[in-house]
Amino acid sequence: MCGIVAYVGDKDAFPILIKGLYRLEYRGYDSAGIALLNESLKIYKTRGKVADLENFMQDKDHKGKIGIAHTRWATHGEPNDINAHPHYSRTKKLAIIHNGIIENYGPLKEELISRGYRFTSDTDTEVLIHLIEDIRQNEGVDLPEAVRIALNQVIGAYAIVVISDDHPDMLVAARKGSPLVVGIGDNEYYLASDATPIVEHTKDVVYLDDEEIVTVKKGEKMLLKTIRNRVKTPYIQKLEFNLSALEKGGFEHFMLKEIYEQPRSIRDSMRGRLNARDGIVSLGGILDYEPKLLNTHRIIIIACGTSWHAALVGEYLLEELARIPVEVEYASEFRYRNPVIDETDIVIAVSQSGETADTLAAIELAREKGATILGICNVVGSSIARATHAGVYTHAGPEIGVASTKAFTAQVTILTLMALRLAIKKGTIETSRFQQIIDELEEIPRKVEETLNLDKEISSIAKIFTYARNFLYLGRGYNFPVALEGALKLKEISYIHAEGYPAAEMKHGPIALIDREMPVVVIATNRGPYDKVLTNIQEVKARKGKIIAIVTKGDKKVRELADYSIEIPETEELLVPLLATIPLQLIAYHIAVMRDCNVDQPRNLAKSVTVE
Fold first, then answer.
1. Is the terminal CB of the chain with fewer CB neighbours within 10 Å at N or C?
2. Annotated catalytic, 607?
3. pTM (global) more than 0.85
């Protein structure tokens, strides 16, 4: 849930490291630090933002061709200067940066204290660097071997990079359950928690697998091995995105840019997979597992947060079109409730980053029980992409804003294609109906563009409700997950309490909250249970609630009842989530901006939740 960047080569390390930390700010963090090696190993760190660290280091020694840097999201110990990374070993000859959690740090710490070690921080990370140094000194092994032995004693998740005063041209790194990528340059290496700090320097990367250790030296080939000491051959891949994807491109915030990218990201998710003219839907990434999908008696979709909402739309799609029973599970709960799974089940893991710790743990559990695991994620080479039997990339492009937007619509697009493909292969949909839907699906990017043209109107409505302390979002059928997602967006970035509910459930509790101060957002498009939603709106109006309605263009009935209406283009009921979510994203965005919130980096949140 924090960021790593490291460098060794012939260039000055500091500019690379500090810029890399800025690139990683989107991941969420509360402190930052850098270690540089030039004659001696020096650490500089501070609570706050990367800009605070840069200001702190203005009059410090920046020299060095090797260094490690980190942004921390507090787990063990409060966010302060002392707990910030990097951490020294006892002799200050070693330093470490670490993402993840060392679960058995307590017993390890007690053992080290009994040997005379003293700790300056509250972190689990400091325990690990002391352990590495203790092994190095007492067993007389080199640094890579000391790291390997130490990691065999560790329980938990980690991505680490270790730097040594004795090795001014070498870094040692390892991962388990937390991502780490190595960039290969000209007689130089870059390491990072994801590719964003690397892409401007090199396109050649190696993604480490769990329990792998890499030793990189300036001008030498990397040495890759497992913590069981088995040497491996690195698999070098090419990065598929450009530096421009990491820039705001004239938008005030990444979130707004990514909202506006959705016509392209939806189109890219369909490219090569949807041919409406010839009536073809294909998903090559899961083609080998299509027979199992067609014959399964159950699909289980596991996800967290926004991906869980996309998965819920997927449940509706797969059950309606392909007539396959679907269960949608929070990955964080799935692994702890002893679920009933067997080899006949298909488990689909959905994640933007492909690194979500709870989802990875759920995948591991499902694999142990013999299920077939498929993945839907956005990041090529991510852990989930490698942990699943097969899968589909969304091709949404890098998503920097912590509040996910284009990932949601891209995931829904993929699930729509999957449901359509299975339906036509199973014969659970008429060919004419299939063609009708894919023709409309092909039009969705254009209709998203049309919806984005409402931005100024939506901003004006949002301005009225910056006072609110609570919001209620209501939807039925396909629009229920949209209501959940709209409420989540508002909570994440504006810090206003919001709840999403099935509209009919309002009478079972939430209606007690409604008064003249309560804004109620209702997704009331003209397909599905439209008349029922009208009744729900009337119930809110009778209690003086303020209605913001998302309606189909040309609607009159809802407009007469609502205080404010936002018209979206007409589409198929099952495709409405791809359009209706756009105004809800914009409402949340504009309210957050007007409340002077940090839209791209909301408090307490991280982009990729890589710890439990």
1. C
2. yes
3. no
What span, in angstroms and rounded, lies between the C-alpha atoms of 419 and 314?
A: 8
Q: Is the pLDDT of residue 511 over 80?
A: no
Judge whether 303 and 331 are in contact, CB under 8 Å: yes
Active-site residue among 2, 304, 377, 597? Answer: 2
Q: Tell me the backbone φ, ψ of residue 128, rounded to 5 degrees.
A: -65, -45
Helix (H, G, I), strand (E, B) or coil at 380: coil
Minimal CA–CA distance to 458: which of 587, 290, 585, 551?
587
Q: Is 547 helix (H, G, I), strand (E, B) or coil?
A: strand
Question: 223-249: per-residue pLDDT in tens?
Answer: 999 999 999 999 998 887 666 666 777
Structure tokens at 381: 């080479």
Total length of the chain: 612
Instruction: Give tens-digit pLDDT for 131-172.
Output: 999 999 999 999 999 999 999 999 888 999 999 999 999 999
Tell me the pLDDT tens digit for each residue of 540-552. Answer: 777 877 899 999 9
Q: Encoding tokens for residue 212? A: 């792998």
Preceding amide of 86 cis, omega within 30? yes
Residues 39-82: tens digit of each pLDDT: 899 999 999 889 999 999 998 888 999 999 999 877 767 778 88
Q: Is the pLDDT of residue 497 over 70?
A: yes
Position 607 pLDDT exceeds 60: no
Query: What Rg value do the Cα atoms of the chain yield, rounded?
Result: 25
Q: What are the CA-CA distances from residue 47 to residues 35, 52, 84, 350 (Å)?
A: 15, 8, 7, 33
- Residue 199 pLDDT more than 90? no
Written as one string, the DSSP assignment of 49-95 is: -HHHHHHHTTTS----SEEEEEEE--SSS-SSTTTSSPEE-TTSSEE
Distance set, CA 63 to CA 35, 171, 201, 272 (Å): 11, 17, 20, 49
With tokens 């969705």, the residue in question is 444
Q: What domains can you pick out in the chain, each with its CATH number?
A: 3-239 (3.60.20.10), 247-451 (3.40.50.10490), 453-603 (3.40.50.10490)
Kindly state the DSSP code that residue 25 receives in the 8-state scheme.
G
Judge whether 2 counts as a catalytic residue: yes
Out of 45, 65, 491, 607, which one is annotated catalytic?
Answer: 607
| Closest-CA residue to 181 (of 199, 163, 155) | 199
